[in-house]
Amino acid sequence: MSKIVLLRHGESIWNKENLFTGWYDVDLSDQGKVEAKRAGELLKAEGFTFDVAFTSVLKRAIRTLGMALDELDLLWIPIEKSWKLNERHYGALQGLNKAQTAAKYGDEQVLVWRRSYDTPPPPLEESDPRYPGSDPRYAGLTKAEIPTTECLKDTVARVLPYWNDTIAPAIKSGKKVVIAAHGNSLRALVKYLDGISDDDIVGLNIPTGIPLVYELDAHLKPIKNYYLGDQAEIAAKAAAVAAQGKAK
Ligand SMILES: O=C(O)[C@H](O)COP(=O)(O)O
C-alpha cells in the first residue's frame, strides 16, 4: 500500500478577490500562507514524510509546497515542477470576477464554464497579453500545447500523461510522494483515480490548503481517501469554493 498526498495551494490573492486565475501567476494571500503552514503542521502531526514532491510552475503552488515542507523539515527533497500540473487555463475569463461574471451571464453559464467536463471558457486571442506563448517558462512547449483556454477534459489530457510517465513510476518505486497543485489540475487527477463520471465531476470542489490523502494498492488503485483536519470546516470550505461562481 502507498500513501500519497494531494495539496491544493493555499488561498491566493486572486482567490480572495474572487477572480478567475488559471495560468496567471498570482501569489498566496496572508490567509493562504497560514493555510500552507497549517497543512505542513497537520502532515507532521500525522507522521507524514516525503521523498519527492511534484508541483506546477505557478508560485501559489510552489510556495505552498515550500511552506508545508518547511514545517516537515523537508525543504531538501527533490521538487519536480511541471506546467502539466498548472491550473486549468481559464481562457478569456482570466482576471474577471466570478460573481460579477455570474451576474452578467447567469449562474448556470458560469457553472458550465467552471465545472463542466468538456465545455471550455471562451478562448484568448494569441495577441492577448494573457496568452502564455511568450512567457519563458513555457518556451519548451509546442504551439499546440500552449492553451488559449481549457475545459477539464483538456486538463486531464496533460495531467494524466504526467501522472503515468512521471508520478506513478516514482510511487511504484517506493517513493513517498506529495503533489502540490491547483483546484482543477487536482480535480483532473481525482477524476481519474476515483473513476468519477463526466457528470459527477461537476459537483467536486477541492478546498485550498487541505492535505488530501490517497491510500493506493499495488496497481495504484485507491483503497480510500480522506482530508486531514476538521471535517466540518473542510466541507464548509469546499461549499464556499462552489459558491464562488454564484451572483449571490
Ligand atoms: O483558476 C482559478 O480561478 C481557481 O484557481 C480555480 O477556480 P474555480 O474553482 O473557479 O475553477
TrEMBL record:
<comment type="function">
    <text>Catalyzes the interconversion of 2-phosphoglycerate and 3-phosphoglycerate.</text>
</comment>
<feature type="active site" description="Proton donor/acceptor">
    <location>
        <position position="87"/>
    </location>
</feature>
<feature type="active site" description="Tele-phosphohistidine intermediate">
    <location>
        <position position="9"/>
    </location>
</feature>
<feature type="binding site">
    <location>
        <begin position="8"/>
        <end position="15"/>
    </location>
    <ligand>
        <name>substrate</name>
    </ligand>
</feature>
<dbReference type="InterPro" id="IPR005952">
    <property type="entry name" value="Phosphogly_mut1"/>
</dbReference>
<dbReference type="GO" id="GO:0004619">
    <property type="term" value="F:phosphoglycerate mutase activity"/>
</dbReference>
<comment type="pathway">
    <text>Carbohydrate degradation; glycolysis; pyruvate from D-glyceraldehyde 3-phosphate: step 3/5.</text>
</comment>
<comment type="similarity">
    <text>Belongs to the phosphoglycerate mutase family. BPG-dependent PGAM subfamily.</text>
</comment>
<feature type="binding site">
    <location>
        <begin position="87"/>
        <end position="90"/>
    </location>
    <ligand>
        <name>substrate</name>
    </ligand>
</feature>
<dbReference type="InterPro" id="IPR001345">
    <property type="entry name" value="PG/BPGM_mutase_AS"/>
</dbReference>
<dbReference type="Pfam" id="PF00300">
    <property type="entry name" value="His_Phos_1"/>
</dbReference>
<keyword id="KW-0312">Gluconeogenesis</keyword>
<feature type="binding site">
    <location>
        <begin position="183"/>
        <end position="184"/>
    </location>
    <ligand>
        <name>substrate</name>
    </ligand>
</feature>
<feature type="binding site">
    <location>
        <begin position="21"/>
        <end position="22"/>
    </location>
    <ligand>
        <name>substrate</name>
    </ligand>
</feature>
<feature type="binding site">
    <location>
        <position position="98"/>
    </location>
    <ligand>
        <name>substrate</name>
    </ligand>
</feature>
<dbReference type="InterPro" id="IPR029033">
    <property type="entry name" value="His_PPase_superfam"/>
</dbReference>
<keyword id="KW-0324">Glycolysis</keyword>
<protein>
    <recommendedName>
        <fullName>2,3-bisphosphoglycerate-dependent phosphoglycerate mutase</fullName>
        <ecNumber>5.4.2.11</ecNumber>
    </recommendedName>
</protein>
<feature type="binding site">
    <location>
        <position position="60"/>
    </location>
    <ligand>
        <name>substrate</name>
    </ligand>
</feature>
<feature type="binding site">
    <location>
        <begin position="114"/>
        <end position="115"/>
    </location>
    <ligand>
        <name>substrate</name>
    </ligand>
</feature>
<dbReference type="InterPro" id="IPR013078">
    <property type="entry name" value="His_Pase_superF_clade-1"/>
</dbReference>
<feature type="site" description="Transition state stabilizer">
    <location>
        <position position="182"/>
    </location>
</feature>
<keyword id="KW-0413">Isomerase</keyword>
